[in-house]
Amino acid sequence: MADNKNFNFPPVNGGKNRGSRNNSYWIYILIAATIIGINFFPFAPKPVQTTWETVKNTMLTRGDVEKLILTRDEDKMNVYLREGTIENYPALTANGFKNNTGGPHYTYKVPSVDISEANIDEAQKTIEGAKDVTRDYDDSKSWLDNGLVQLLLMTAIFIGFWIFIMRRMNRGAGGAGGVFSVGKSKAKLFDRESNVKTTFKDVAGLAEAKQEVEEIVSFLKSPDKYTKLGGKIPKGALLVGPPGTGKTLMAKAMAGEANVPFFSMSGSDFVEMFVGVGASRVRDLFKQAKEKAPCIVFIDEIDAIGRARGKSPNMGANDERENTLNQLLTEMDGFETNSGVIIIGATNRADILDNALLRAGRFDRQIYIDLPELKDREEIFKVHLRPLKLDTDVEPAFLAKQTPGFSGADIANVSNEAALIAARKDKECVSRQDFLDAIDRIVGGLENRSKVIKVNEKKAIAYHEAGHATVSWLLEHAHPLLKVTIVPRGKALGAAWYLPRERQITTREQLLDEMCSVLGGRAAEELVFGQVSTGDQNDLEKATKQAYAMVSIFGMSEKVGMLSYYDSTGQSDFSFTKPYSEKTAELIDAEVKALVTDAYARAKGILGEHMEEHRQVAELLIEREVIFSDDLENILGKRPWAEEEEGATGDAPQDEDL
Ligand code: ATP
Asked: How high is the pLDDT of residue 97?
């Protein structure tokens, strides 16, 4: 949901990077030039092996030989042909020689220097074409021709290149771009000159969190105010909360408001395939930050590196991440002081973070950002409705009521989706209905009216959904119903939509009533058609999970007792073994089964008593496809239980699909 992670303004140190990158462009140019050179200017072809007889009978006879040079040490004669004659010899052209390619062109072994001299003397006397052939000796030796020397040279070049890359990598701030700068931190720097438009005004709601963050900004702006009483500026703060609740937005606002440099990077930016790079990047980040202090360093998704260190030292794969974390721990509260550098981390998994990271002195403050409550949602809607052209019937307060459990990102999405829906209908402005359609779409998925559903299937779906609706209508603690539909949406064939009450705690009765209404669909199918179908799988899964939670987490079973086997830290040793005995496991299973069976029996009882009303709801549903709570009130009568006041956060609207 964090769609705006990458701030879309250029880092102010961009110019610096560019300059230093230029320095190492020569290495790329050198490599490219070598490759091009090898392709376009190949080394001279090697001379072709021949014999004295061929030289004498063909080349000398034709008068093609320019000179003969004898290498005495190797008993080898090199034959140089005259320019223009070379292409008459197919063996040469096949070897890559052209008419103007320099020699030697042929070479042959001589039995001994004396015999060779005698042969040539003889030929020069008898063959006309051999008369002006120049004769010479070549006693110099090229060390490059030595195979061993060549091999050593190649190895030296290769090792040199490798050392060069490694140095660049380790040096980190070496300044080169691309692969050579892997050790350099990827943090983007925003300061006064950067064009950061987000301010605290763009962050709606979240009053307490905003206050804490604003305080940190003010620490940096006027530290004396706080330090004159002897207090110390906090070293760091951790923003914790579910996805899309505005943690990154808050950091962005901080960057916009703080008059100090602001470094931003994501936890995953530390991770690279090379070993040691993460730690090097942490070092580099803090080096840069200390140079710019006072400043703020923001690390988004800090769980990517801050995960608790493993207990077993054999898990080699984690070494790199652990090294990175260790480096971060040292930098945050190590021997060296880094006064004036405030670290802000953001995560939605604070439970899995290493304890050492969370202790005071590193992240002194944990700022919890929860899903927005009713009032906050209204504020967030106001922010996101600002740019839209709205109809008069759109009220943020009404929309906030329709969206319990929605995060700030969901609300931003609803607002945008509503505008798109209105545009699709060629409307002049966005109306309330567009918002309701957008909410439906986001909760339930896209409407799928073209899905082929047989008549008897439609009837089964209608009775199933009517079962949910009737049972929940008649139970005191079930969520209030909003509407029932049998229009397929996403994967679901039908759904009963509820508007969950926003509550902080849930009682046993509420859980039991919700379980009962979840099973209302299956109960209806069994009562009306005498058979059950696979469509209930989702309902059964929900009921079973709820029952297991009641027994093994919330301690709501008398037989099992007030025990909770849940480990909220996620760091226990229970991951492979259960924290209870086999006997308790059997007891838990039996209790879960009893809870679900009881709830099912209750649902069947309620439907049995209200068969006729249930039938009417189902038939109306078949006729209209979508019915609302008013229709249910007409059939079943007004619910006697007054709706509670809207309170705090609740679950997302549920849809019970078939
Ligand atoms: P994640 O944990 O997934 O990284 P996050 O908490 O960092 O999520 P953000 O990226 O800050 O979430 O939020 C995503 C979008 O949601 C924002 O760009 C903004 O449009 C909207 N949003 C979230 N909270 C608020 C808020 N309090 N006020 C206004 N808009 C909000």
From this structure: 85
Is 348 a pocket residue for ligand 1 (Cβ < 6 Å)?
A: yes
Ligand 1 center from residue 411 Cα (angstroms): 9
Write down the domain spans for the chain.
48-141, 188-368, 374-444, 457-645
Q: 344 CB under 6 A from ligand 1?
A: no
Cα of 353 vs centre of ligand 1, distance in Å, is: 21
Which residue stretches of the chain have pLDDT < 50? 1-22, 173-178, 312, 645-658
Q: Which CATH class is domain 457-645?
A: mainly alpha
Instruction: Indicate if ligand 1 lies below 6 Å from the C-beta of 251.
Output: no
- In this prediction, residue 588 carries a pLDDT of 93
Measured between alpha carbons, how far is 449 from 493 in angstroms, rounded to an integer? 10
Q: How far apart are CA 403 and CA 377, in angstroms?
A: 8
- CATH code assigned to 48-141: 3.40.1690.20
Q: Can you list the positions of beta strands (E) in 153-212?
A: 188-190
The CATH code that applies to domain 188-368 is 3.40.50.300
The residue from 301, 465, 525, 656 that is catalytic is 465
pLDDT score of 257: 80
Q: For CA atoms 500, 346, 194, 257, give the dihedral sign.
A: positive
Is 465 considered catalytic here?
yes
Strands, E assignment, 256-352:
262-266, 295-300, 341-347
Which residue's CA is the nearest one to ligand 1's atom 5? Answer: 244
Q: What's the pTM value of the predicted model, to 2 decimals?
A: 0.64
| Residue 316, pLDDT score | 52
Query: Does the Cβ of 205 fall within 6 Å of ligand 1?
Result: yes
